Amino acid sequence: MILTGRKISDEASKGLIILDPFCEERVTSNSYDLALGSNYIVYDEQIIDPFEKPSFQMKEIPKEGLLLNKGDFILCESQERVGSEHYVPIIHAKSGTARAGLFVHVTADLIDIGSIGKITFQLYATLPIKIFSGMLIGQVTFWVPYGEIKLYEGKYQGSMGPVASLTYLDYV
Amino acid sequence: MILTGNELRRQIEMNNIVISPFALSQVNPNSYNYRLGSSLKVYDEQQEKFRSVLIPKKGYVLEPHKMYLGHTKEVLGSNRYAMRLIGRSSLGRYGLFLQVSADLGHTTSCHQWTLELVATQSIRLYANMIIGQISFWHNFGEINCYGKTFANFNMPTEGYI
């Protein structure tokens, strides 16, 4: 079952869903709109090797916006901290973002229950697009789990900005 | 409703979910991490067809913006739950798509899934690496077996339209 906007709002006010900062106007009928933060990551590697620690640069989206060219891929933070110990969040683009050909995740929409932190958007542009800090770029839905809950204790817990892949830690 | 990791384990014991081979360490709070199988299909633009390759020990580099077919190492399925097969955040953060907007696994299918791999930047893939995750969802309504077109394929299998 998917939560309605009203239920998201209720659960956020009780602290059962974390959306911080929370703005009532961002609640939609079945989701909550997420804004783009300002820090982003670009990898230096020509060929990514998931077994190796990646080299990357952390940058800031300038005030006048950042132009993504067709085929560009960057990681960017959400402005909000998002998570829940009671519901399963799933990340989506806003339809307006998708209509501009911009992916906000790369087949990794599912958030583990108990993971609380800023979302790392995986931005992949299929058309040239200018992005701005603060723009409403994505949305998060919340789903009811079934079964005994074991909370997330993984390597991305508590992210306070965009986090590059830590998959090499699985192999050390 | 989406099954928690603990519920997923319980349903495997009751034979309502098949994950084979299964490793406890690959259970997440609300999904299961699957591994990449050893064969890929690479599209040959001149011949206009896919050719099969085995991923060598040193890995296989995917070129950006090309589509490859892969498969899960595990047999994954359920007669009781619907499934969603996606990538993993650790690989999404490297810009690797694991499927091309076809995440839904039908109740009653049980096989090694074909993966549609698209890299947004060059990436080296290794056979057996943990690469994606599958979640299991409750059904509402009577379950019927919906066709078998792809349900029994275990190797990466191209589409028929």
Fill in the keyword field for this structure.
heterodimer; A: 172 residues; mainly beta; eight-stranded antiparallel β-sheet; 38% strand; B: 161 residues; Deoxyuridine 5'-Triphosphate Nucleotidohydrolase, Chain A; five-stranded antiparallel β-sheet; 15 strands; 8% helix; globular; dCTP deaminase activity (chain B); dUTPase-like_sf (chain B); Deoxycytidine triphosphate deaminase (chain B); nucleotide metabolism (chain B)
Describe the structure.
The complex is a heterodimer of chains A (172) and B (161). By secondary structure, chain A is mostly beta strands. Chain A has a single domain (5-46, 53-147), classed as Deoxyuridine 5'-Triphosphate Nucleotidohydrolase, Chain A. In chain A, 8% of the residues lie in helices and 38% in strands. Chain B has a single domain, classed as Distorted Sandwich (Deoxyuridine 5'-Triphosphate Nucleotidohydrolase, Chain A). In chain B, 8% of the residues lie in helices and 39% in strands. Chain B has helices at residues 5-13, 89-92; strands at residues 2-3, 17-20, 32-35, 39-44, 49-54, 60-62, 67-71, 75-78, 82-87, 96-97, 104-105, 110-111, 114-119, 123-125, 130-137. Chain B has a five-stranded antiparallel beta sheet with strand order 5-4-7-13-10, with no helix packed on it. The longest helix of chain B has 9 residues, at 5-13. Chain B is globular, with a radius of gyration of 16 Å. The N and C termini of chain B lie far apart (32 Å). The interface between A and B is large, with 45 and 46 residues. Strand 11 (145-146) of chain A pairs parallel with strand 1 of chain B.
